[in-house]
Amino acid sequence: METSTTPQRKTIFSGVQPSGMLTIGNYLGSIKNWKAFEETYDCLYCVVDLHAITVRQDPAMLRRRTYETLALYIASGLDPEKNTLFVQSHVPAHAELSWVLNCYTMFGELSRMTQFKDKSRKYASNINAGLFTYPVLMASDILLYQTDLVPVGIDQMQHIELSRDIAGRFNQIYGDTFTVPEGFIPKAGAKIMSLAEPEKKMSKSDTNGNASVYILDSRDDILRKFKRAVTDSDTVVCRAEGKDGINNLMTIYSAFTGKSDAEIEKEFEGLGYGHFKIAVGETVADALAPVRSEFDRLMADKAYLETVMKNGSAKAAYLARKTLSKVYRKIGFTQPK
Ligand code: TYM
To answer: What's the predicted TM-score (pTM) here?
Structure first.
């Protein structure tokens, strides 16, 4: 009898911290790109609340942001039937594996993480141990699901490199245990810069409201922020060194329209910055309008969001437990039947 084997689908994992209003940086660097995988990969997308508490959070706000982030995943097009959408603290295996992997991660490695250095500067009065071991928890998120691909913005690549190193080290000591993951960086939008200081990354924790465009900003706010975006004293819309503001607007425009730099330069030839800024603002506002209205609809239906959370965490917990049991067995923990 002929046997046929179905090739095993590869696994995708990614997540966003519910630590603020999500920006178009989060959207273009990660969430927007996730839908493309749902037909061909096993996809898990997590709201990483355990990560968020490395910085002090207001409890009511954290709770609300957790629902909001999940709602934004769905409003951005992710089908909860085709993707496993869940909240990190609902699956205890993340914290459990994290402890184990802490013992296979070096102090020196964690000391070199740029996000740790940046955040220690920014939150100098709260440089807690969680902030330091944050990348180990992230490695646990990824390795628990035998993840092949991690779609993220460029700022997370150093953490993914570390996850690869931890997986490789563990596999070398105990034999094949973890899939060694790869990062997946989008062509346009891997690093969206601040509109107010275009040499700095756009961030959900920026205190300057004009620096970041939020996915849920009103149309008027979006248009206003783009009109006020910091550029330079030149007038020609083209990508060039030293034109950080215009380069960033071109990246945003390209990520939303799929147009190349050459096409954008041609489109705005002889038109000047004012015209370009309005076009970018309108494009972004048009693209985000349906996300916003779907978000509003979902936030009015908490029961539905809770069902998604529950189903997602049950599926995730099942997969996570398989890896965790394997890890416990390999390192010599007893597991009475
Ligand atoms: P977070 O919450 O800071 O950001 C979520 C995602 O958005 C991307 N991103 C950006 N992309 C382009 N331009 C920007 N200005 C910009 N700002 C943020 C981030 O690269 C990220 O993809 N440590 C992660 C969360 C995390 C995670 C994981 C991700 C925890 N565990 C496991 C992947 C896999 C973080 O802080 O993302």
So the answer is: 0.95
